[in-house]
Amino acid sequence: MRSPKPAPELYLTACEALGTTPQRSVAFEDSATGIASARAAGLYVAVIPSLPGADLDHDWLGTSLAEPELRDWARKLGDGTVR
User: Which of 6, 43, 66, 70 could form a disulfide with 36 if both were Cys (CB 3.0 to 4.6 A apart)?
Assistant: First the structure.
C-alpha cells in the first residue's frame, strides 16, 4: 500500500481483490485510524475496542468476535435489513 490508514486504499484494494464492493463489506477494527480508513472506503464497521470506554464510530460494537449478536447483525446486512 502506498498510503497507510486512515487512507481508504487498503480496504478498496481488498474489496477489488475479493470481487466485492465496499457497500457489501465489513471492516473489523479496534482503533479510530482503522475506522476512519474503513469509513473513507465506504464499508460498514464492526468495532471491538482495544481500549475500554473508547468512543468510536461504529455500525456494530462488541467485546468479542464470538458474540452471537455479531452473527445476527451480519445476517441482517446480508438480507438488506440493516441501514
Answer: 6
Contact status, residue 52 vs residue 42, Cβ threshold 8 Å: no
Measured CA distances, 31 to 27, 38, 61, 64, 82 (Å):
11, 11, 12, 15, 23
Q: Is residue 2 part of a domain?
A: no
Please enumerate in sequence order all residues whose Cβ is within 8 A of that of 16, keeping only pairs 6 or more positions apart, or say none: none
- In sequence order, the 6+-apart residues with CB closer than 8 A to the CB of 37 are 5, 6, 7, 8, 10, 11, 27
Q: What is the pTM of this model?
A: 0.89
Element (H, E) at 60: strand 60-61
pLDDT digits (tens, 9 = 90+) for 4-23: 999 999 999 999 999 999 99
d(CA 52, CA 6): 21
